[in-house]
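Budget justification aside, the reviewers requested a transparent look at the raw inputs and outputs of the sequence design task funded under Objective 1. We therefore reproduce one unedited record. The lines immediately below are the structure tokens for a 443-residue chain.
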């Protein structure tokens, strides 16, 4: 008599990018929209049996959990500490992503130097550059320190061995997509490799209370390269943004288990390295405020930070049957809408037959609706040839009916405007666009 063999429980299929599961194979994951990422999952071995929990790992009442293990450590970069919520938490894993050449390695090398200068031992693992290249950048930016240890490795096993040998208080890996391990299949940077490397480094960080900073590559659409599970494994995800044509850089936290996600850090890239900008109020203003037509100051919000930004507009008679619209730092569709509103409700009938140019000072990009009033007033000033008073700052959203709606967090914007010497903040107290144009221009 034949004896029936026991079969392992089928586990179906699993997406290698985000971990989504399904009973049937599909070519595209409906969760993360990745193609070819759904693979057959490992069969279940059986029901997991409970084990005795040792005393050191038993659950505790929340009031008995000590707080000394989560004391933050300063990085030496005040703007980065602002984004992280006050510093680096021991045992945390922080992922810093950004486009190539934006300055991720320069920023983290500066952090490594500051922490090493405080007496802590720092291990900087460069999987993309040689030791000589890192040393050359350190000399150029003045970030040499005897407590800063360098390693150029791409093998995860060797990286873990370096951590055992150096025994650092901070580890920086540049970058996580270039480190690979023999325990995972695929090439370096593939979903399986990135997931295994990140999981191993996270395990080491938690076991040793060792903070680890990871550099992450991004795809052409700005998303973090690799599986989506990478963002779930780490504790903090920060994006490093900036235009190569300008010196300004922003660091934003899109995930933070230990602090807020609405803080923004400002940095300035120079030939000597990178420096935090604690008060960026003068970076986005020119000297022509109040003297030249076509300029208007708005108080924009970058996270929790209120920043004055100058919007400039130029309106000239078009020589083409199809007038041009050129924008820099603002949304072109939004400007087109404001031009139509100015024609209908602002009394500027001939602006639709002109070439319109709108730009922000300093290369900053404004996307919030509160910048509508500044764009409209700059256009109105350019058309009439009357400059806006130098003591005026504005903020407000403009509707299709020509009404001015109050901007969010108006009190914070008003406080920043008064701190900078602007005695008049237009927007919340005006209801119609035509009234705002009359109130803003010089008499």
């Amino acid at each position: 008599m034949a004896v029936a063999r026991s079969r392992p429980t089928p586990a179906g299929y699993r997406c290698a990018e985000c971990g989504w599961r399904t009973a049937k194979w599909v070519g595209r994951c409906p969760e993360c929209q990745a193609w070819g990422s759904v693979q057959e999952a490992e069969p279940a071995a059986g029901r997991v049996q409970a084990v005795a929990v040792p005393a050191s790992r038993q659950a505790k009442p929340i009031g008995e959990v000590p707080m000394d293990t989560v004391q933050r450590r300063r990085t030496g970069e005040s703007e980065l500490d602002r984004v992280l919520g006050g510093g680096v938490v021991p045992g945390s894993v922080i992922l810093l992503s950004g486009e190539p050449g934006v300055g991720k390695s320069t920023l983290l090398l500066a952090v490594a130097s500051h922490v090493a200068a405080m007496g802590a031992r720092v291990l900087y693992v460069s999987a993309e550059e040689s030791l000589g290249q890192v040393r050359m950048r350190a000399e150029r930016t003045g970030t040499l320190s005897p407590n800063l240890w360098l390693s150029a490795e791409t093998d995860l096993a060797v990286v873990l061995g370096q951590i055992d040998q150096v025994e650092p208080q901070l580890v920086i890996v540049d970058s996580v997509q270039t480190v690979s391990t023999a325990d995972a299949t695929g090439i370096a940077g593939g979903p399986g490799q990135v997931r295994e490397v990140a999981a191993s480094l996270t395990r080491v960080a938690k076991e040793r209370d060792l903070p680890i900073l990871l550099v992450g590559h991004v795809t052409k659409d700005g998303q973090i390269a690799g599986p989506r599970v990478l963002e779930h494994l780490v504790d903090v995800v920060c994006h490093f943004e900036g235009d190569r044509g300008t010196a300004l850089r922003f660091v934003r936290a899109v995930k933070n288990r230990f602090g807020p996600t609405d803080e923004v850090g400002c940095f300035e890239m120079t030939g000597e390295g990178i420096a935090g900008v604690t008060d960026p109020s003068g970076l986005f203003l020119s000297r022509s405020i109040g003297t030249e037509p076509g300029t208007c100051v708005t108080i924009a919000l970058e996270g929790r930070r209120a920043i004055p930004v100058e919007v400039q507009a130029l309106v000239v008679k078009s020589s083409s049957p199809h007038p041009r619209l050129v924008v820099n730092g603002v949304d072109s569709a939004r400007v087109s809408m404001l031009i139509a509103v100015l024609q209908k409700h602002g009394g500027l009938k001939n602006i639709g037959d002109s070439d319109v140019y709108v730009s922000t000072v300093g290369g900053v990009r404004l996307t919030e609706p509160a910048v509508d009033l500044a764009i409209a007033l700059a256009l109105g000033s350019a058309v009439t040839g009357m400059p806006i008073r130098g003591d005026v700052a504005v903020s407000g959203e403009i509707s299709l009916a020509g009404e001015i709606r109050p901007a969010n967090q108006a009190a914070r914007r008003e406080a920043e405007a008064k701190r900078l010497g602007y005695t008049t903040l237009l927007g919340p107290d005006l209801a119609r666009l035509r009234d705002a144009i009359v109130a803003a221009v010089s008499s």
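The chain has three domains: 11-40, 73-278, 282-440. Residues 297 and 310 are 4 Å apart (CA to CA). Computational costs for records of this kind are itemized in the attached budget.
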